[in-house]
Amino acid sequence: MAIEVRIPTILRNYTGGAKVVEGSGDTLSELLSDLDARHSGLRGRLITEEGGLHRFVNVYVNDEDVRFLGALDTKLSDGDTVTILPAVAGGAFGFAAAAAILGHRAARAASDEQRL
Amino acid sequence: MGVLTIDRAIVDAILAHARRDHPDEACGVVAGPVGSDKPVRHIPMLNAARSMTFYEFDSMEYLRVWREMDDRDEEAVVIYHSHTATEAYPSRSDASIAGWPEAHYLLVSTRDPAVEEIRSFRIVDGAVTEEPVRIVDATVDPHAVQTYMFGQSPATVDYECSGR
Q1: Which residues of B touch A95 (CB under 8 A)?
Q2: pTM score, two decimals?
Q3: Per-residue confidence in pLDDT tens, chain A, 116 aa
């Protein structure tokens, strides 16, 4: 099963410079493990030590953000396109302070905040 | 050291966006042909955080804009956001999150309505390096001249690094 994965420039050092790679898996988590077998270290840039999707990486399956599809459990099918984009975010405050203000994001950020 | 060369009209549009969204932070990109280092197409974007102290690209708009750039053989030459009460210098979160090492990270501050505060940075692996901003085809702006007093001429205004 082939799934096209679009890699942002900052992660292309893991793919030998390739902008697009192919992988397989029934879920996003399986796909990332499959990719990591050939592009060692890539999975670690996307997944936290706690095993959740990194707060500051956006991953899309086709036109949907996986945060709204089941995150790492998102189901994949042959022919899907997965796009990875590093979040563009920041601001005058540190993120912890911002997270406290942005209550509606707390659930979404959940497991990843302790990283900062 | 690099330099950001950018048209006056685009700088004006970015400043207008930042002033319009003040006191919330504003954000966006300026796209240009891949490899050109030339910012030509200003794309103001939503701040999904709608916050005075934080910004984040809206996830769906981000995907759409990046796909559109891809289709046009463009890339994000400039990624900008505003600080609304503090200086135009990357915060720790700006630096740690920045994920486009090839982009110019342009910051503007809207803390003083009478002052244009524009600075540009490269952010690679969390390391921040300031670079000068060279504004071309500038209309003569007495305020800018008074504020910066560096290298201005009728055709160009150079915003030099402040040495921080």
Answers
A1: 54, 93, 96-97
A2: 0.82
A3: 599 999 999 999 999 999 999 999 999 999 999 999 999 999 999 998 888 998 899 999 999 999 999 999 999 999 999 999 999 999 887 655 555 544 434 434 433 444 44
Break chain B into its structural domains and give their ranges: 4-159
| Cα B30 from Cα B98, distance rounded (Å) | 16
How many whole angstroms separate alpha carbon B24 and alpha carbon B52?
Answer: 4
Identify the CA nearest to B156 among candidates B16, B103, B141, B146: B141
- CA torsion through residues B45, B46, B48, B52, sign: positive
* Structure confidence by residue, pLDDT tens digits, B98-126: 999 999 999 999 999 999 999 999 999 98
Q: What ipTM did this prediction achieve?
A: 0.81
CB contact under 8 A, B97 and A58: no
Cis peptide before A86 (omega within 30 of 0): no
CATH topology of domain A3-88: Ubiquitin-like (UB roll) (3.10.20)
Nearest beta carbon to residue A89 from set B90, B97, B101 = B97
Residue of A nearest to B81 (CA): A91
The CATH class of the B4-159 domain is alpha beta
Q: Are A73 and A27 in contact (CB under 8 A)?
A: yes
Whose tokens are 């911002």? That residue is A98
